[in-house]
């Protein structure tokens, strides 16, 4: 479909580092799945649908760089617990009772929430193969899927999980909105021998890696006890960093860890709400940015956040470091917006396709209504995203050139059925 968006304020890439984004009143032209023109109408273009952009802001679709979508039905079932009690005492027990259908409907609920708050792509670590992937394909969302890997050496269970990753990738190779990575869970669920196997598999399969690293103090202590090094050092020495790598959390890291991350061009996903809620602390985001590390933003799962609203995370990341560092210049609104868009795209090796509004890129866009009390008057559209917006302003979403939400009505999903099915799951295993 050819879509023309008229008279809209667009956040476009800026001219230099001093002005990384620029708010411009313009028209946008979409042909098929790509942006065909900005400002000037492409030759021969004929709109099949027009969108009035008056008092609206269009941004690149947000990228949630770390989450567990299947957990959406676990929202508010494991609160105010230590990290170990949260994971092993509550969440793991619910996961043991979870069926494939539970995971499927949980992922649908997560996608619904993300889409309604402007996210058009997410990086997911999941357990039940085919389920999140099926929900993504049906909903029109874009995603990078990682089957969570747990293993000890070349044990049968660890090998089986690797094979599940490949079978899922092959089953959905016809959907260009889906890509796949290897997903070793964490240093405390994958031993050193298994991590070396994963590094070898990544080379053979030409796949990137997504892993939880340095999330809690206990993780650091146990890693030093078992391996004599930090989780970051363990990942380096097992060869994991020789491949495109996304490290989720990186809360408990030191200067040496950061130098290793920079050396290997590792992308780090900060998850501020989850890290605070589980009492794990604050990732050193300003220090990582200073070193030139690519930092992006994730929500983590709804069992630990308990929201999948990336606009909320943008607000947190722009505010908490100002407070912890006692500097209003610590993390800017531009920094936060970059983390939620182009930095996330770089982390996923998709920056040639998504993450910014540019001619030739995929038409993954979110349109916000600026004429709301919290966003009006429009003095600075970029600042408003981190300091004023709450996500409910997102009105229309376009993914891969297809309108998936219009006037806050999701066109590609059965919202009422999602609520009904996830309530059944809640009653059965979360009560």
Q: What is the element layout, followed by pairings?
A:
Layout: E1 2-16, E2 19-31, E3 34-38, E4 49-52, E5 56-60, E6 62-67, H1 83-97, H2 100-116, E7 119-126, H3 131-139, E8 142-149, H4 156-171, E9 178-184, H5 192-205, E10 209-213, H6 217-227, H7 231-237, E11 245-249, H8 255-263, E12 267-270, H9 272-277, H10 285-291, E13 295-297, H11 310-324, H12 333-340, H13 342-347, E14 365-369, H14 381-387, E15 394-399, E16 402-406, E17 409-410, H15 415-430
Parallel strand pairs: 1-4, 1-5, 6-7, 7-8, 8-9, 10-11, 11-12, 12-13
Antiparallel strand pairs: 1-2, 2-3, 5-14, 14-15, 15-16, 16-17
Could you explain how this protein is built, in words?
There is one protein chain. The chain has 431 residues and is of the alpha/beta class. The protein has helices at residues 83-97, 100-116, 131-139, 156-171, 192-205, 217-227, 231-237, 255-263, 272-277, 285-291, 310-324, 333-340, 342-347, 381-387, 415-430; strands at 2-16, 19-31, 34-38, 49-52, 56-60, 62-67, 119-126, 142-149, 178-184, 209-213, 245-249, 267-270, 295-297, 365-369, 394-399, 402-406, 409-410. Strand 2 (19-31) and strand 3 (34-38) form a beta hairpin.
